[in-house]
Structures are given as structure tokens and as C-alpha cells.
Specification:
Number of domains: 2
CATH class of the largest domain: Alpha Beta
Number of strands: 20
Shape: globular
Helix content: 10-25%
CATH architecture of the largest domain: Alpha-Beta Barrel
Strand content: 15-25%
Structural class: alpha/beta
Radius of gyration: 23 Å
Oligomer: single chain
CATH superfamily of the largest domain: Alanine racemase
Largest sheet: 9 strands, mixed
Length: 437
Amino acid sequence: MTETDPRAQPGPATAVAPSARLAATPVPDNVSTPAYLYDLSAVRSAHARLRSWLPEPSELYYSLKANPHPSVVSTLHRLGCRAEVSSPGELDAALEAGVPVSDILYTGPGKRDEDIAGALAAGVRDFAVDSVHGVDQLDRAAALYGVHVSYLLRVNPGGGSRGAGLRMTGGPSAFGADAEDIRACPERYTGGDHARIEGLHLYLATNITDEEALGDSFSEAIEVARALSEALGRPLRTIDLGGGFGAPYARGGELPAYPGLGARLAEELDRALPGWRHHAPTVAFESGRYLTATCGQLLTRVLDVKESHQQRVVVLDTGINHLGGMAGLRRVPPLHPDVLRPNGAAPAQADRIFTAEPPGPAMICGPLCTPLDTWARSHTLPAVVPGDLLSVPNTGAYGLHASLVLFLGHPAPLEIVTDGGQVVRSDRLTFVRRAGL
């Protein structure tokens, strides 16, 4: 659920390149923090940029896991993106954003029976499955509802993708059925009376910034799709090649460019799946981080500045509970965020205790009662005192919704949405304990 906070009034946005827009957006000192600030014009710019790199015709799914805020989801749907969801919460977010069920693909390597039942009750008819059990589970659920559904069979091929921030398949994995087993026993994967295979879903790796490496990943996926289409012995209507498009995270920088990708993939698709230009099959891609990373920044205020064992320590009002929680717990590589003074934000007035020190390295910590709540051990900061407003750029993807927001019970940050220099929405997630049902 959400609640409106009228105190958040960001200033006008400046129309510049999406990667630079947030750094140039004036933010008034009276903004309530912590706060995520999302710029919908940056979402539209990133979408236009990504579409220009893809072969045509093709579909594009938006992966809600990157940022399920309804304003972001509805903006991307109006631009033509279908929604890829993988939980009841993401399904609710897509529906709240106005995405029709006909434009929703429900994925995920493990689904509870009640998750599938809830999706079927909502009208979802397109799924992705990862195993023989997943095929049977979906078929049984659809039979109980007296409906017919289609699914994409997710594939786990061999091989590897160089340059990937995270490899999704290629070894033992929850994601996808092994390509070798599909080829050996295709009849196990084609469905039952109520759930029938529509196509294949391949997502080999993520966060690849190098164009050649990304192209190689898609080339592998195309070849696997060709081979399995023949093995399954039936025409497939959809080949979802997944994503892997990189983006800066919590640091300054621009979205990577892939200017030759579309032409390369079109040529390879012509050879492997010659009917694709006439949607036989339809080729699809998906993206989360590329579409949203540069739309967001996290605003934070300094709570304390001190010297500890000859090192400057700066404590902020946000930390791993709002950004990089999994990195904070060392489950993924640690963050090295850029922490900057936002454009237009004046330094706070030092009181009689604090004197702003010269810029220099500092240990950056959050407010949580754990030493793991540390963004950086030594990061260059401007001279700051308590009350100063700072910003972490490029946090529109995997920000709040990939954090430890429930840990220690601090309020969730505001989420402020701007468009054309105007605040169009400002709300905050809240959590309510209810009796078990």
C-alpha cells in the first residue's frame, strides 16, 4: 500500500541526455529524505535508445523486478512494452499500472500452486515454465479453472557468456530445462490438454556492456532456439531471447550503446528462423535495468560526521536497507556508489559543534545497527556537515526493491515521480501486519 507525502517538491527537470539528466536536476534543500526520485522523461529516452538497437519487428518486455513503481510500469506499457512478472506482488503492480492481462507474462523458476491460481483468476494466460514439473503443474491448474493457457519453455543451454555481470544459465541452475533433455525427450515438454507450449524463453546472462559480448550471447540463444524448434517438431509462435543489456548502477555514467546489434541479429535470425520478419515466430527481448537505471537517484541527508581511528566517518539517513542490500550482505559484489551533492543543493549551515572539513575520503555508513551497513570504506566526499543533502545517481533499477527495507524497521523512502519538470506522484511503501489467513 502507499501513502502520499505532500512535503516532497522537487524542482524542475532539465531536458538533457538521460544519463546526465539527474545530475542536472535541481533538488531543493527541503525535500524529505531518504527519497528515490524518478524521472519519466529519462525512462522514455532509455526506451527509445534501446528500441533503436533491436532488430525489427520484435517485442520488448519490461521486467518489473528492476522497478515495479506503477508510474514507471505504466509509462513503459504506453510505449509498447509488455510486462514480465515473477510474483503475486509484481502481478499486482502490473495490474495497478493498467497493464491488461493479455500483455502480462508470468515467469519464475518456482511457483506455488496458489500463485498460479491467483494469476489464472486475474486472467493471465501466458506463462513461462522451467521444468517437466512446471509444465504439469500449469496444466493441472488450468484444468481446475477450465481454461487453456500457453507457456514459453525456458531453456538452460551449455556454454557461457563473456562480459556478463551475472550468468543465469550454462551450469546447474533453477532457471530453465536443460537443452540436452529437451532434445532427448521433447514430448515431456510440449504440454497437456490445458497448457500447451507456445515458444522458448532464453535468458543467458545479464548486465553486459560490451556490444560484441552481448551479441555473442544472443547468437548462442538464437542457435539454441533453432535447434530446439526442430527437436520439438512443431512451429513455435514466440522466441524470447531475453536480455542482458547493461547499465551503470549507483555510479555516474551513460547507458552503453549497441549500434550494430540490430543488424547483426537480423542477419542471424534470417538464417536460423527465416519466418521471424513475419512473426513466424515472433522474436522478443526483455529488459529491466537498461530501461530504468538512469531514471532514478537516491536522495539522502547527512546525519553525523566524525573522526574514528584517524578516519572520517559520514553517517547518512539511508543505507543497505534502501540501496544495495544484497551487496551489503556480501551476497553480490559490494557497492562503490558515487555520493554527490545534487545540482542546486546548498551546503547546510554548520553549527557551533561541526565545522565543514575539506573534501576527502570518508567511510560512508547508513543508520542501521550493524557494521554491514557500509556503502564504502573510503570514498571521496565534499565537505559535509549534518543536514547536507547528497545524491546517489543511476539508481532507478534495483534500488528500493532490491534492498533490505524491512530490516530494523526504518520507514521506506519516499518515491517521487517527475515528468516534464513537474511532480506527478509522491508516495511511500508501508507494511501492515495482518492475521494469517
